Fold each of these.
Amino acid sequence: MQLEAAEAKAVETKVVHTPELLGIARRLLWWLPPEEALDCPVRFLAQVMTLGTWDDLRQVRTAYGQARLRQVLMDAPPGVFDQRSWHYWHRVFAIEPPPLPRRRIP
C-alpha cells in the first residue's frame, strides 16, 4: 500500500523545466514547443523511455524519479513504445509485459 501512495505522489509532482529537460523535449518531441512537451509528462516520459539516450534517461530519472517511469509504463499512451523498449522497460521493473497499447481508430 505504501508503494502505491509513493507512486501516486510521484505522479502528482510538478517538475521544473530545466535547460536539460527542455533540450531533451526539443530533440525527442520536435513537433511541440519544449515547454508544451514537458507539460504532457506521460507523453514526454514515454518518448524518452523509447527514444532517449542513456544521458536523457539519467536526467529524467533524476527529475521525475523511478516510480514515475514505472507509472508511465503501467498506463502507456498507445503508439509510443516499440516492441523492444516495451519489453526492456517491463524487464527493468520486473513486470510481465502485456501486449503493446494500440490506437483505436473508429
Amino acid sequence: MARIQSVLRRSQGTQDAEISIACSDVVAFDGWELHRTERSLLSPTGLVVALSNAEFRLLNTFLQTPRRLLSRDQLMEQARGRAMDAFERSIDLLVSRLRQKLADDASEPSMIKTVRGAGYLFNVQSVQVRAAWRA
C-alpha cells in the first residue's frame, strides 16, 4: 500500500509541475527565458531570439515535459497538432533548427539530446516559472 501511495504522490507532483508550466507567462531554463505571451525567447546574454511558430510550439512542448523522453510521433502530435506519416522526418529538421537557435552544439548536444531509435530528451538543469512583469 505504501508503494502505491508513493507512486501516486510522485506522479501527482509531476502533473502539478506540468500544469504550472503550462499556465505560466514566463518559463526560465538554463539562463534562457521563454515569454509565452510575447512569443519571444531571451538568450542568457539578453538577446531576443526569433522563433517560428513551429519552433515556439516545439520548445513549449519540451518545456512542459523536461527530462522526459518524447518520441517523434509524440513531438509531432503535440508540437504540430497532427499525426506523422511513417517516413516523415520534418520533426528532425525542426529539432535541428531549435538546437541552432539555443546554441546547442549539434555534434555534442547538451540541451536537446537524441536517443537513437526512441526520440528526443530535453535535458535542462532547471525549469522555473513566473508571471510576466507588467507595467
Amino acid sequence: MDEILEILEKDARITPEEIAKMLNKSPRKIREMIKRYEKEGIILGYKTVINKELIRDANSEVRALIEVNVTPQKDVGFDKIAERIYSFPEVKSCYLVSGTYDLLLIVEGKDLHTVSSFVAEKLAPLENVRGTVTHFLLKKYKEDGVTLKHREENKRIAISY
C-alpha cells in the first residue's frame, strides 16, 4: 500500500504538510495524491474511533455480530443477497467470509429487542437466507487497530481470611 495511505489510515487528522515532511515530498504533491485517492474511491471517508464504553448513556446502542448462511444466486453469486442485506440501516458492516457461514454482519440497534426483531422480521425471512447465528457484543477491547481504555472499576468484594 502507498505510504500516504498507510499514514492516513493510522491518523486521518494528519495534515498534508506533516505527511510531506515525513516523506520528504512537497505538500502540494501530497494534497494532489490525496485528492486523487478520494476521486478514485480509494479513500472513502475519514473516521474517528470513539470509545463508546466511556460515554454510555440512554441512547447507547447494542451491537451484534450475525453469521448468515445464504444460498448464492445463479450468475450473481453472493453479491445480490449481500446487497439486499447491507441495504438495511441496522447493518453497519457486511463481509463475505469463509467457513460455516457465508456472510458476517455487524448490526446495531437501540436494545436487544430491536436487534432480535431485525433478525426475526427482516433478515431471516429473506428468500435466500438459510440460517443465522447472533452474537451480542458485551465488551470491546480493541477496534480498528486502536486499544480501547476502560474505566477502572473494582467491583469485586474483598475477601478476608
Amino acid sequence: MKRGSKFGVWGVFTARGLGALVGLGLMAGAAGAEDIPKNLECSFTGGTSWSYDAGVYNSKAPSPLSFSIEEIDLEQQKATLKTGTDAKGGKLSVVRAINANHFLEAVNEGFLNLTTVYDKDPHLGKYPAVHSRHFGLLGQPVFGQYTGFCTDK
C-alpha cells in the first residue's frame, strides 16, 4: 500500500496555492471595509426589541431609528455619533473586521450600543447595517437589535 497523495509534491503545492488564493480573497474583502466614507447617515426600520419583567422576556417591533456616524477615522479607530443636527457628538470606538466596521458606544450610564456597517451592496448602493442596544430601565434589562442601511453623507 502506498502512502501519500497520488499527486505527490504537486498536491502540497496545490493545497498551498489554494490556501494562498483564499487568503488573498479575504484580504480583498477587507479592502472593501477600508473604503468606507468619512461620514455615514444610518436608518434602521426593522428589528426587534426585548424587555425583561417578572422573569419573562417580552419582544416587540422597535420604533424606526436614525443617526449619523461622522468623522470616521479607521487608523485612529474612532468616530463621532450624531443623533440630530444640533446634538453634541458621542464618542465611538471603531473595531475593524473583514468586510465590516464595528462602531461601539459606551454611554454615560455604562450601557453599550454597537453598530456594524458592512461593505456596500453594489446593487443597492447602500451599506447593510445592524444596530444593537443593551441597557436597563428601572433595574430591568432592555435591549434591541435593529436592521437597516447606511449611506454616504
